[in-house]
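F.,

This is the one I mentioned.
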């Protein structure tokens, strides 16, 4: 059901510093910051030849990333995103398997302008999983 790895998301306490480090030390192609108010984050994508890294920074006081960074002040891997062909079919299969879909269970539009869902980390070995329809 899952396709290619779309991105690995890293919560960062200082977005500018993280972008500068990846551009300078690693020579990475760093995208422009993009606010995602529906998700409470500012994101920056780092383009790699085979996937992307997504930096997450809190946007507003209710940001889920704010709580993550309070528990992990240095930042860290927040989630992994896999591509799926049909997000509604994927959701139904996962629910039938006993997995929990976070939020209302309805897809939201993600940072790439495509439908996304998040799966409970307790159902996937402690890893928060994002599914993105391609």
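My design for it:
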């Amino acid at each position: 059901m899952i396709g290619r790895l779309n991105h690995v998301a890293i919560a960062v306490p200082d977005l500018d510093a993280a972008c500068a480090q990846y551009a300078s030390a690693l020579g990475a192609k760093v995208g422009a910051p993009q606010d995602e108010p529906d998700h409470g984050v500012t994101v920056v994508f780092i383009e790699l030849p085979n996937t992307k890294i997504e930096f997450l920074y809190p946007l507003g006081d209710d940001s889920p990333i704010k709580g993550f960074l309070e528990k992990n002040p240095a930042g860290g891997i927040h989630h992994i995103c896999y591509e799926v062909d049909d997000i509604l079919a994927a959701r139904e299969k996962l629910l039938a398997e006993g997995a929990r879909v976070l939020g209302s269970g309805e897809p939201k539009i993600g940072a790439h302008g495509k439908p996304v869902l998040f799966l409970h980390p307790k159902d996937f070995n402690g890893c928060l999983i994002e599914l993105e329809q391609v």
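The longest helix spans residues 15-24.

Talk soon.
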